[in-house]
Amino acid sequence: MPGLLDGQTAVIAGIANKWSIAFGIAESFAREGASLVLTYLNEKQRETIESIVGHLPVIKLIPCDVSKDEEIVALTEHLRALGRPINALVHSLAFANREDLGRPFVETDRDGFLLAHSISAYSLVAMSRAVAPFMTEGGSIMTLSYLGSIRVRQNYNVMGVAKAALEASVRYLANDLGPSKIRVNTISAGAVKTASARAVKDLSVMLDATKEHSPLRHVTESGEVGDAAVFLASRLSRGMTGNVLFVDSGMHLM
Ligand code: NAD
Asked: For 7-29, how does the pLDDT look when each residue is reduced to its tens digit (9 = 90+)?
């Protein structure tokens, strides 16, 4: 049976290790026939990625620390050198100071606020600008968010505000890039036990609550997010842009 992403090339940003949501997405994309271009934060992360992607059709690894404009510009040059259309961009990265997650939101200082927004929200805008010129056959851009963008979630704080900016950015990008047949959507994932999620105090309480109270009584797995990402990258979602798709066992209803 042909894969849903046969012949496609996807750029995926945000694999830190095999627990990363981006890794689940990479595995789902590979299963459906996509070739993968992966970006990495630093040399240490490149080595980790190389050690876990042996089974995946990775055609290129590109450095991209999104706090550095020059690395985002260089991403464009790397993709130009690759010389093939890009069909999908997965933005699965975020960062905030750990202390800004743990203390009351009202105590967030300017630097912590700007840092969270720069890495977690602005980077989607900058990466979209870098990758969109190669989406010559149209394309699908997607990012990862969390319910803390629209509801107050204890210990999520500045990241919730950054996710709100991220989701609003998706809507404006969808409007700008729609005429080029580039769709832009958000996946709002339930809590998944990853390195980033461990920075949120009481993660285990959230996971237990999901297991007990979500409609599906099930903790979200990165493979479930990966399969929703395949849908967003594929023709099956060709009529959708500017959406927030919840992949959270229905926890957003509760
Ligand atoms: P993760 O720690 O595995 O991935 C986060 C990634 O962000 C890492 O690869 C890290 O290197 C990258 N990153 C941080 N700063 C960067 C920078 N300056 N330049 C480039 N990359 C940088 O954690 P994850 O949970 O897989 O997170 C992926 C996305 O999913 C994030 O946007 C996160 O907010 C979102 N999300 C996670 C959960 C969850 O519970 N794990 C739930 C909903 C949404």
From this structure: 999 999 999 999 999 999 999 99
